[in-house]
From TrEMBL:
The lineage of its organism: Bacteria, Pseudomonadati, Verrucomicrobiota, Verrucomicrobiia, Verrucomicrobiales. The keyword Transmembrane applies. It comes from the Bacteria. Keywords: Membrane, Transmembrane, Transmembrane helix. The chain crosses the membrane at residues 12-34, 40-60, 67-86, 92-111. It comes from Prosthecobacter vanneervenii. The keyword Transmembrane helix applies. This is Transmembrane protein.
Length: 132
């Protein structure tokens, strides 16, 4: 007797859950606490969590692109830290093209199913029907 396997129905568009709200609130609390402690890299928390939210809930970015972005972000922050540049602007300005590239690559994919996918992706129905 074989078990009855049902494939999960695929969804598209913006996503938001209670756990997302909890993570955002925890990140805001941690950021506030780090600012209060005069921690120079306090801004890393909202930058990382904000991008995670953007990639996972708004544009639904592939994991490998998220990991690529994270690797560049860590290297970017490390280089600025070693140069004793603690202001967020230089790091975020260097990171912005990577963020734009990751989102653009995702949105041009036939597997794109994030925000505005119905308008952007002519192959969305194929993705949703798992026929790509």
């Amino acid at each position: 007797m074989t078990p009855n396997h049902q494939t999960a129905r695929r969804h598209h568009g913006f996503r938001f859950s209670m756990s997302d709200a909890c993570v955002l609130l925890l990140a805001a609390g941690l950021t506030w606490w780090l600012v209060g402690k005069d921690f120079a890299l306090w801004w890393v928390v909202p930058a990382a969590v904000g991008h995670f939210f953007l990639f996972c809930n708004v544009f639904l970015v592939w994991r490998r692109l998220e990991l690529l972005w994270a690797l560049v972000f860590v290297l970017n922050v490390a280089v600025h830290f070693l140069m004793e540049v603690f202001d967020p602007a230089p790091s975020l300005l260097w990171q912005a093209p990577v963020t734009i590239l990751v989102i653009a690559l995702q949105m041009r994919s036939p597997w794109y199913h994030g925000i505005f996918a119905r308008r952007i992706n002519p192959r969305l129905a194929d993705y949703l029907n798992d026929s790509l």
